[in-house]
Amino acid sequence: MRRFAAATLVCLALAVLHTWPIASEPQRHSLNYNADAELNAWIVSWIAYALPHEPRRLFAGNIFQPDDRALAYSEPLVVPALAGAPIRWMGGSAVLTFNLLLIAGLAATGAATWMVAARWTGSFTGGLVAAALAAFNTHLLTRLPHLQAAHAWGLPLVLYLTDLLLAQDAPTRRCLPTIVALGLVIAATAATSEYWLFFAAVLMAVQVVVGARSRRVLGHVALAGGIGGMLALPVLMPYLRLAGEGVRRPLEQAAQLSATPWGYLTSLSRLDALWSHRFFTRDIDVLFPGIAATLLAVVGLVAALRAGGPARRRGVALVAIAVLGVVMSLGPATPLYPLAYRVVVPLQGLRVPARFGYLALLAVALLAGYGVAALQRRLTSPWRSAAGALALCAVTVEAWHGPVKTTPFTGVPRIYSVLSQEPPGSLLVEAPFWPAEAVFGNAEYVLNATEHRTPTMNGYSGFTPDAYRRRAQWFWFFPEPWAIAAMRREGATHVMVHLEQFGPEATSVKRALESQSALQLIAEDPLGHRLYRFRAGAESEAGGKR
Fold first, then answer.
1. Is 489 within 8 Å of 505 (Cβ atoms)?
2. Please, is 277 exposed, middle or buried when counting C-beta atoms within 10 Å of its C-beta (0-12, 13-18, 19+)?
3. Are the C-beta atoms of residues 499 and 510 closer than 8 Å to each other?
4. 81, 181, 283, 469: most buried by Cβ count inside 10 Å?
5. In whole angstroms, what is the distance from residue 200 CA to residue 156 CA?
6. Which pLDDT band, with edges at 50, 70 and 90, does 537 fall under?
7. Residues of 393-404 as b/e, b for ≥16 C-beta within 10 angstroms?
8. What is residue 541's predicted lDDT score, i.e. its pLDDT?
9. pLDDT band at 246 (very low <50, low <70, confident <90, very high)
């Protein structure tokens, strides 16, 4: 436990380093230049509010309303939200909660990987190198706005516990603690990210193919998967409902968001970018593990294969995982992905095949841990720790992306507090109401919804529902009288106007609002926000002007 505590502190220090300057002022520095950061801040904040107050509306949220599954349009993030709930309950902002969960998630991913690598290799510093590579690689460090990406701790734990079941091959009652532990990890992974759940299933399947020696072992792994699925069912049900209704990602979209072979030579780290920038095309196609990591992984693979026994089985499994991750990340460019897309229905819900590349990075990280351990065994005692520390410094320096880009967060505009004084049953529309092609423009409204509980028709997520697309065709033309009438017909009771977002048209919008009689101004602020309430009979009046 002392070694684990020490490793966790190192991982926490690395998380602070790789996300600097966020830790210096976590309540102010934000990643809100990216709409996904604002969405994920809303998700964890909504869950923290809904669980004690409106548990039945957990997946409904207060965006894309009226809708009872707004949360299911993105990752669940239930486990991170539970970890961050005390911050929200004590009055911390959504941005502060997001930032602390980001740092904690990266540290937890590193600590979980350390536990696996240290136990497999017997090397403390070998485990730290594996932890650094699994949690602070170029793929995750270019996805900091994606909170779920930082919380990849479930994957190394699934690897470890599945490997443990393969090695035990004992009666069920003797393996029950491991089976239950694996089931719990699967459930926690499912309650964090759909991608990580699918990747966990891939890890288990590969390990079973490589190392299962009896039907009993297969039964134990299947039992653990069943326990995890049953425990996660309340979280998975809304996603299953969407799948049952035919909501899926088209294969054409998967092709657009796939990796390329050049992506495995691309890094945005300060050091590697000096030579790899020529291969860069898109942020999703950044998967180079690092020169130091690759060399250590080769040494580790050779050492594992020569050692035989469990080490050889793990080495073969990690190579298979890496190869499968690379092939799947290329999406429809290879025959495997379209075949899997048709056969494995959950794959139809994943939008970005490039993220499969993380499986290769995780495999490289664990093999690099074996590599450090192998090198240390060739050294005398005084030099072993020095070699491990040198390897850790090498992979850290090579992976460093900092200082990360941030934007100042000054809080949600106070005008939203007026909504709490309005009658129950209010339904808010925020204008401009962005068309589906620019739905990310609503991300600011989504973040603002963390400080008020009024349902709003606006929203942003990984999936845009048809109801939003239909309304946007009308609402986008606000403040035209017929657009206002359409809002009222859809049930809106209030409109929050963001004059600053109308750009050069702000003056004409303000003039049009002053000349109409369907909306009553009830609050405004110096920032350009104006809150209106629909007057009684507004629908017939606005509709008559059409």
1. no
2. exposed
3. yes
4. 81
5. 9
6. low
7. ebbbebbbbeee
8. 45
9. confident
Pairwise CA distance, residues 331 & 146, whole Å = 21
In this prediction, residues 37-58 reach a mean pLDDT of 96
CB count in 10 Å sphere of residue 291 = 15
Q: 495 has which bridge partners?
A: 429, 532
What are residue 25's phi and psi, to 5 degrees?
Answer: -145, 75
Long-range contacts of 248-254 (CB under 8 A, 24+ apart): 248/348, 248/349, 249/348, 249/349, 249/350, 249/351, 251/332, 251/338, 251/341, 253/351, 254/331, 254/332, 254/337, 254/341, 254/350, 254/351, 254/352, 254/353
Residue 423, token pair as written in the block: 């009658």
Residue 254's Cβ-side half-sphere holds a number of Cα atoms within 13 Å equal to 23
Residue 467 CB contacts under 8 Å (≥ 6 apart), including other chains: 64, 67
Joined tokens for residue 472: 């946007």
Please report how the helices 78-89 and 94-121 are oriented relative to each other, as an axis angle in degrees rounded to 10: 130
Q: How many CB atoms lie within 10 A of CB 357?
A: 28
Amino acid type, 499:
L
Q: How far apart are CA 424 and CA 426, in angstroms?
A: 6
Query: pLDDT averaged over the chain?
Result: 94
**Spatial distance between the Cα atoms of 24 and 406, rounded to a whole number of angstroms:** 12
For residues 213 and 154, the model is more confident at 154
| pLDDT score recorded for residue 540 | 43
At residue 333, the pLDDT reads 95
> What is the three-class DSSP state of 514?
helix
Least Cα distance to 433 among 350, 376, 496, 377 occurs for: 496
**Per-residue pLDDT at 481:** 94
| Angle of the 124-135 helix axis to the 2-18 helix axis, nearest 10 | 30
Give percent above pLDDT 90 in the chain. 87
Query: Alpha helix (H) ranges present in 438-489?
Result: 443-448, 466-475, 481-489
In the structure encoding, which two tokens stand for residue 359, read together? 């499986």
Rounded CA separation 215/217 (Å): 5
Q: Which residues on adjacent β-strands are paired with residue 531?
A: 496, 523
Tens of pLDDT along 403-459? Answer: 999 999 999 999 999 999 998 899 999 999 999 999 999 999 999 999 999 999 999
